[in-house]
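Input.
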Amino acid sequence: MTRAELAHIVRAVCSVLKIYEIWVVGSQSILGSFSEEELPTLLTVSVEADFFVPDWSQLDENEIEASLGEVSKFAETHGYYADPVSKETVHAPAGWEDRVVPFYSELAKGCTAWCLEVHDLAISKLAAGREKDREYVRILLENNLAHESILRQRLDAADNLSEPEKDAIGVRLNRIIQSIGGAPE
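Output.
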């Protein structure tokens, strides 16, 4: 996905819901911090933008699914789509809401997307634990887009995550660090 495509999705979601802000929380939230030219291709291959809107209703979510979702005419026409998720799918360290990065674009026509900061995104990916999420974090670390020391600080301070969650995230992070030839801090 490109920043222009993300801006298109942001504009479309805001237009459908008659709002001016959304929260982008999936892998493409990286586009709030970096342009696609600065990123390895594997970090921008997703064709979906995971997002939520605070206090939205099931009706709003259904409307987005129908008009901008995976099986919509929008997706068929453009090759990318909006994927509504709940705020609860974000397993980032406490305080992530205060660290979001604003994504503005003329193409978004006055709408703002609040995107996960890269280290919060990485922790959320490690919490999900899927192979594709671990690979995403490995690429972030290998390309110095995220830093192990910050990830560990955020994880240590994540009082909103249970100890078993934090332990699992730590193990995944250690394995990634070892796989790229480093020794865990």
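Residues 163-179 form the longest helix (17 residues).
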